[in-house]
Amino acid sequence: MSTHTRPLAPAPGTMQKRKERRMFSTSDDSAMMKQVQTTHAPDGREIDVKPILQIVDEILIQFIARSVEGHEVKRDQDALEMTAALAEYDMLDSLAFIINKISCELSCKCSGGGDAHASTMVLLNYLSSYAWHAKVVLTLAAFAVIFGEFWLVAQLSIENTLAKSVALLKQLPDITENAISYKPHFDALIKLVKAALDVTMCIVEFKELPSEYISEDTPPMSVASTHIPIAAYWVIRSIAACASQIASLIGMRNESISSASEAWELSSLAHKVNSIYEHLKQQLALCYQYIDEKRHMEAFHNLIRLFETVHIDNMKILRALIYAKDDILPLLDGNTKTKVSLEVLRRKHVLLLISDLDLSQEEILILDNLYKDARSRGETHYEMVWIPIVDRATWNDVNRQKFEYLQSTMLWYSVVDPFIIEPSVIKYIKEVWNFTKKAILVALDPQGRLSSPNALHMIWIWGNLAFPFTSEKEESLWKQELWSLELLVDGIDPTVLEWMTTEGKYICLYGGEDLEWIEKFTTTALGVAKAGKFELEMVYVGKSNAKERMQRMIQTFATRKFSYFWPNVTSIWFFWARLESMLYSKLQHGKTVENDQIMSEVMTVLSFDGSDRGWAIFCKGANEMARAKGDTALTCLRDFERWRLRFEQDGLVQAINDYLQQISTPHHCNRLILPGSTGGIPQKVVCAECGRQMEKYFMYRCCVE
């Protein structure tokens, strides 16, 4: 039997297609849009298209596409169960007629290379009463019937007598025997089918967007709505082209195939449909972004209302803040390293430690000591939960390892995964609790009420004495305080507190990192003590926000033995953290340097720290104190003989204060550097030396040590 070579569709049809292709590639889709819109007259019927899409995907992708691509087609148990469930889908009964009608139209009108646009318009008219998403799904279903029947007969004709007889009557080609020659043809066909299915899925997704969060006239949705009709047109037209290719195989049993032009035709359509898909996908992403923002805003306002409501316990609040579902255990117990539910926090005082991944080891160490102390005291028992605030956009393996390391160092609870914290909660934490970068410690009582938006400052100053961390407790603690050495070093070094109670002993706290000044100052001070025959203990307290440099200073002090010093960076860090906390606490209670001595003295010490040189505070007992900046303090000590008599009469502290008054000059330049995330910057700051209002500047610092 002779073998002939002919194209898949008659030449006139091919010429017609090329003509149409030129027309649609050069004309604006808006003209065609009007034609398409005239066919659209939906009657409001609702169709659940998801089950149909599942069947279509099963036929076209899971079976035929995988076979064409050379993959083994497997049916796992899930797929079998899904097919069984779809068999119970009642709506297929009512849709079978329209699917069959479209199949007939695709088989008859689309064969022989007729007018593709006209065929597409006929199909759209058939489907006029359906919504856009239903039109494309039903058309795909009709094509799945055609392609599925063709593929069944073609595949089974090798071993099934009935299938072989049907294939003979239709004169279908042996696609198994001639797989190589048919592969480009079917590859192009499958590529177009997949593109059409992608766009269809996209159109269905638009339909299923929640109307309570996005409406038809909302910009992302309204833009998409203008493109969906034309997208539906090109999907249906693509399916018509695919059906035409299947129909053209009838009668080709003994003929070879020249598929280059037809494959190109399908590829061209696939390119067009893929472009539509990319555009719709972008619009869909914008819609989801809009919906997420609306949901997050709704959840944000719900959280605000939740905190305004009285609750019998703290579970509603904690579920809203940490994790609302019951599908996972959201907390990791730092002690046992096991996952636990939020129930472990029910009706307990809870401290939420909120930070980024730059939480320092010093902060963890101090909190660890306080947490252990609290657990040993029944009357001040509370639980603590670490909630890390991270950026999903920059999250990587390094961040994951950092999170897990920090988590491993904590004895208290932490969330099992940073991303279980909802964006609305992060928004609340940042906007209501004013979290920026520096760690905060939010205190909640057993009913979930807010005790303090940041108890970290209280706990730094007074430790667990601040329990239950309310503003009232904070105020009562301040009423018991005076500016004293005990307030400065409480909880840091018991040795200094012992010196304070020793009769006749003077103490000098000094700081800075100018080694030349430190050497001169300590030598001079010890010389004055020897000359005045009094006992002087000197304590180096370093400088704030300079951990690496302080580590080097500690090593230098250990070698050169200038004076007594704190042998770890944590103590130095904690000294300055407590001072900053005192300032913040006073600001929160509306205090100013004019009406509060402690605040004035704290700001003075912080301004000393901002200078390039050193500084010193001389103390006797708890309350006698004299202070000066580095050069002034050094000058004062060098002039000891000038005020020696006053020292012998009134003591060291009073004598220094009097002499400092005598040698003070109008010329000075003081700086007060406050961390931007302290929680509140005072509008007015008075100079520690002259009492005039200081000018305000902004400083941005990157200190890589």
From TrEMBL:
Protein name in UniProt: Protein SIEVE ELEMENT OCCLUSION B-like
Segments forming domain Sieve element occlusion N-terminal: 27-311
Top-rank lineage group of the source organism: Eukaryota
GO BP annotations, alphabetical order: phloem development
InterPro entries named in the record: SEO_C, SEO_N, SEOA
Region (Disordered): 1-32
A Pfam family per the record: SEO_C
Every Sieve element occlusion C-terminal domain range: 473-703
